[in-house]
Amino acid sequence: MAAKRILLGVTGGIAAYKSAELVRLLKKSGHEVRVVMTRGAEAFVTPLTFQALSGEPVRTSLLDPEAESGMGHIELAKWADQVVIAPASADFMARLAQGMADDLLTTLCCATEAPIAVAPAMNQAMWSNGRTQRNVDLLKADPQVSLWGPDQGAQACGDLGPGRMLEPAALHDLIAGKASGPLAGRRVVITAGPTREPIDPVRYISNHSSGKMGYALAAAARAAGAEVVLVSGPVSIDAPVGVEVRGVMTAQDMLEETERAVNEGCDLFVATAAVADYRPDTCAGDKIKKSNKSMSLSLVRNPDTLATIAARDDAPFTVGFAAETRDIEHYALDKLTRKKLNMIVANDVSAPGLGFNSDNNAVTVFWPEGHESIGPGSKTVLAQRLIALIADQLTEKAGPSGAC
Ligand code: CTP
């Protein structure tokens, strides 16, 4: 790809040290990089570090006559093809969202016409805070701004959750607009979350699925270089960065949307959704009134998305999930054969604190020639290992990317 002129804004956060590696990677790929640091950033890394890596003077102040006599701030704003703020602190995001221009970096963001990518990095509670999220919503609605991350996982302060800055290599690939990793060049379709089967206009049958495992897998597949479509039932999780989410409601919607996504091209299909096996045979047009002492619903079987996709003549490499409470290996292997799958991920949903609606899980993956147990661990870490394992098996069966 063509070399870009990248204006890297570094704000105050422990992840600032990782941006030094980002500068190194960008320079290695032939890009021009100029770094602007906020006062908070200087408390973590010295300007000299970025100057040495970028080969350019680092700007830290708006009202610096010497720096302004070189490349003035308006000139610098015009020079950039792409602005990247990494790490972006909660404070910086608030100021950017409000359109403030109270230091050099926010002034540059006001003055530039280049796209602005923001890579948040902060404590998970700060990220989840309502005021931060309101600023996130403002930035999401800003056509000049893209949010890259944050990632989930262990934080420098010891907390676990969303708020980690994306790794320098991932940011570098996003800037370059290229995908790298074991699933580069593959198209992946994943189902996630519960389905809702309407009883009447205000009631439905559903289950406790949070969608966390499917969303974590989608993020891991994207990080592994894949183009990812996530067909998702109703959940309250943000779309992973770079993943296309297609929302559905019922099992029938899920089948139709998945078939559409698979028809558009699919190398790997992973079904994590907790699809309702049955639906009411009719949905009442009006709210059902409590007129009788008891009532019964007549249920009919829902279509099986996983089995339908796996049965196609042009079936992609297909991975199912099996939630079991006993005889896990026996039932998982039975589903592997019966649904004609390439792999099945089995988990014991009776284990306390794991699986359904939890942040943690432990699974055993079976395929015709082997099996591997993963976890217990966070769904994020588990998803990364699962994707690596699936990518290995996919490459073994279909050959390297582009060969299938
Ligand atoms: N699945 C699906 N569509 C359905 C039901 C299930 O795509 N209508 C997928 C799930 O996403 C999961 C796998 O099938 O990947 C396992 O589903 P599960 O309901 O546990 O298995 P069943 O074969 O339905 O068996 P049982 O419910 O009897 O355990």
Structure description:
- The protein is of the alpha/beta class.
- It has two domains: 5-175, Rossmann fold, CATH 3.40.50.1950; 187-398, Rossmann fold (3-Layer(aba) Sandwich), CATH 3.40.50.10300.
- The protein is 35% helix and 25% strand.
- It contains 15 helices and 19 strands.
- The chain is elongated, with a radius of gyration of 24 Å.
- The mean pLDDT is 92.
- The protein binds cytidine-5'-triphosphate.
- Cytidine-5'-triphosphate is lined by residues 191, 251, 271-273, 275, 277, 302, 304-306, 320-323, 335.
- Cytidine-5'-triphosphate binds at residues 191, 251, 271-273, 275, 277, 302, 304-306, 320-323, 335.
- Keywords: Decarboxylase, Flavoprotein, FMN, Ligase, Lyase, Magnesium, Metal-binding, Multifunctional enzyme.
- It catalyses: N-[(R)-4-phosphopantothenoyl]-L-cysteine + H(+) = (R)-4'-phosphopantetheine + CO2; (R)-4'-phosphopantothenate + L-cysteine + CTP = N-[(R)-4-phosphopantothenoyl]-L-cysteine + CMP + diphosphate + H(+).
- This is Coenzyme A biosynthesis bifunctional protein CoaBC.
